[in-house]
Specification:
about 450 residues; mainly alpha; 17 helices
């Protein structure tokens, strides 16, 4: 099939050197994981576990987080189904932790749904409903109709266990509607089986068988061995209740329950073995075969202890506590780190402010000192200027007095000169006058 071809392509390319090695390793892990899923559907849990473990080993080497989470989830689901609750919870919580870190709501919703189912199987209905409600809210948010349908079915199982038949049927009907809407035939078979069980609880055995026959036919067609084993065992139980002393009906019931037991043993599913064993011990008791009745009753007790004994519940609670405490410790650690970061940031800011204030103070002091020096310089210059001005003004006065004295003397000298000139002009005959008289005398001669 497709996965086998993908595996061949990946292996062929892994033989070649190149930078795409991680890509082909990732492809190989996906193909192996899918083969594990197919083996799980066919009821070969041993082979499925081997595939999932191999896929996980590759994913861990290349640090493929999404793949690791998926493999942890698949392995957890198988281990819980086989009754190894402790290991199953460990893997489921590992898957949940990775999906939370990746903020993968789709993956988280699947793990939460499985954890809710697991607590339901162990009889912790309150815890189971708590996880399932979280899964329901998340699946509504992301619009996962098929996943939501499965969660409605599981919530219905808890309400049925609590004796709330009306609420249980409402959830089963929601499951059936969503499964038919999304054309999920396996889901349709599951919903029909759930409704069949509800009618069986009410004592409406014929109506119950009607739903269970439809469910078994779909599950056989879809190779859903787990669902088929459940549906045919429930048909056997209905026939057991309908027999009312009719040996032929009891023998008919034996056929269904023995088929269910064989399939459950093949899958290694304690819960299904327990259910089939309980039906068989009742049928053999009615048939008067007390040896076989005791044999199957002891098998029922053994499987009951395997599925939901006190030690298992303690392990589950311990795992849950470890997960919640680990989550809280991480949250506290992160919160403390954030608080410390805030404190460090505040201290750093305060330190920077103080440093800045110190620099500003020094700058202010420096500025004031510079201003003071400048003022002193200006004042000294002013004083020197004033002194120089006083000296200049004194010298100017002396110059002015000297000038005035010089002016007076000069005036006196100039007056004397002008006076002497007037005298000279008065005493000396003008050249024109002399020349005129000389010419007149010459004419007389």
């Amino acid at each position: 099939g497709y996965n086998t071809e993908l595996l061949k392509i990946a292996d062929k390319n892994l033989e070649k050197p190149g930078s795409l090695k991680n890509f082909f390793l990732k492809s190989r892990s996906i193909a192996i994981n899918n083969l594990g899923y197919l083996a799980n559907l066919s009821g070969d849990n041993k082979k499925a576990t081997e595939y999932y473990e191999e896929a996980l080993s590759i994913q861990q080497k290349i640090d493929h987080k999404e793949g690791m989470a998926a493999s942890y989830y698949n392995l957890g689901d198988i281990y819980v189904t086989q009754g190894d609750i402790s290991r199953g919870l460990e893997y489921l919580h590992k898957a949940l932790s990775i999906y939370e870190k990746l903020n993968n709501n789709y993956g988280m919703s699947y793990v939460l749904n499985d954890l809710g189912w697991n607590y339901y199987v162990q009889g912790d209905l309150v815890k189971g409903l708590e996880y399932l409600e979280k899964a329901r809210a998340m699946r509504l948010k992301i619009g996962d109709k098929r996943g939501l349908a499965n969660t409605y079915n599981n919530i219905g199982l808890i309400y049925r266990k609590q004796g709330k038949e009306k609420e249980a049927e409402e959830n089963y009907r929601k499951t059936l509607a969503l499964m038919e809407e999304t054309d999920d035939q396996r889901g349709v078979g599951m919903a029909l089986n759930s409704l069949g069980i509800l009618y069986m609880d009410r004592g409406e055995y014929r109506e119950s068988i009607n739903y269970l026959e439809k469910a078994a036919a779909i599950q056989e067609k879809m190779h859903d061995l787990t669902g088929w084993a459940t549906s045919i065992n429930n048909q056997g139980a209905c026939l057991y209740y309908l027999a009312n002393g009719d040996r032929k009906v009891y023998e008919q019931a034996l056929v269904y329950s023995n088929k269910s037991l064989a399939a459950s043993k093949k899958m290694g599913h304690p819960g299904h073995i327990k259910s089939a064993a309980y039906t068989l011990q009742g049928i053999y008791r009615k048939l008067g075969d007390h040896k076989k009745a005791l044999k199957f009753y002891m098998l029922y007790i053994t499987m009951s202890d395997s599925v939901a004994n006190a030690e298992t519940r303690k392990t589950s609670i311990k795992r849950q506590f470890q997960y919640e405490y680990g989550k809280k410790a991480v949250a506290d650690s992160v919160r403390n780190q954030e608080v410390q970061k805030v404190k460090d940031a505040l201290l750093s800011t305060r330190h920077s402010q103080l440093k800045q204030e110190k620099v500003q103070r020094y700058a202010l002091y420096g500025g004031l000192a510079a201003v003071l020096v400048f003022v002193i310089f200006i004042f000294n210059r002013f004083r020197i200027t004033q002194k120089q001005k006083a000296i200049i003004e004194g010298q100017k006065k002396l110059v002015d007095r000297a000038y005035e004295s010089l002016h007076e003397r000069n005036k006196e000298v100039m007056d004397s000169i002008f006076y002497a000139r007037r005298i000279q002009r008065a005493l000396i005959t003008s050249e024109r006058y002399v020349e005129k008289h000389l010419k007149r005398l010459q004419n007389k001669e």
